[in-house]
Amino acid sequence: MSTHTSRRSVLLGLAGIATTSALAGCTLPTSDAAGTGPGGRVTFRYQGSANNVTFPELADDLGYFPTIDLEYVGATVSGPQDIQSVATGQTDVGGAFSGAIVKLAQAGSPITAVINYYGSDKKSYQGLYVRKDSGIRRPKDLVGKKIAVNTLGAHAEAFIETWLTTAGLTSRQIDQVQLVVLPPNDTEEAIRRRQIDVGALGGVLQDRALSQPDIRELVRDTEVLGHELNGGQYVLRDDFIDQHPDAVREFTTGVAKAIEWARRTPRATVHARFERIIEGRDRNESTDNVRFWKSTGVPAKGGAVSDEDFTQWAAWLESTGIVDQADLDPASIYTNEYNDLAKEGTK
Known about the structure:
about 350 residues; alpha/beta; D-Maltodextrin-Binding Protein, domain 2; 2 domains; five-stranded mixed beta sheet; 15 helices; 10 strands; globular; disordered N terminus; TAT_signal
């Protein structure tokens, strides 16, 4: 365990440097929680993603937020950073991998997960990719190799370590697998140039890599866990929930409706809607990526949250020292109370 902790400490130090650098150009407001505005409207401050449409943005465009205003404060650099901003009052809602939420909650942050917003299904998932001529084909081949991930303590690290553990690798062998923090946009080229051995990719970047003749898929997260999975949730601060329960219900249920709208709507229609949203918000973005959107990636109908969304990572959470499996209490981390679709039994 000591060796494993040491390896993570070094990597987390590198992640901290990368995050600090990225945040230098993305200063967030530090005012207190957003209040109620004219006409009883409530503002939800959030971070988004360039060239992408989030489910809250889709919900707003679909008219599911009659008394809510979304206030974009900048682009997030990672899920852990996004929810940390919520915990410190810089934003009001943010999303991250389930394990990162557990870690923040265990540290005493007063946050609660209210709805799933991403995950992995048959069409949308996260995977590991290598050069086609690479000799890496099984978990044991990763010993001594470098794997690029977008951030540490999140989805990629969790499913990689789960794959290694379930394959029977020892702690000493796992410690020799080096996780390197690298911007996803640079991962494919780094694989090609042999600067890294393996890269974790999802979404558009995954599609682009697979379209090239010299890149092949090694494994998917759904194969590692053996099922489709809800990967991460939106969280809000407990004081914000207490202050604006009706608005939180409108927000959570609105996002749930947006997920279901995207699930049942033809892809071409979803693409067109995303393009219109991006073009209308004047952020100097490209709409090229939206045509690669394939599915919601959220198996649970309405984004309903369950204990399994957290317990499926219990072994990894314990191995990294975040929480003892016996102390993992998912019910204290999330609620479906504000998701009317979940309460209607659509889960």
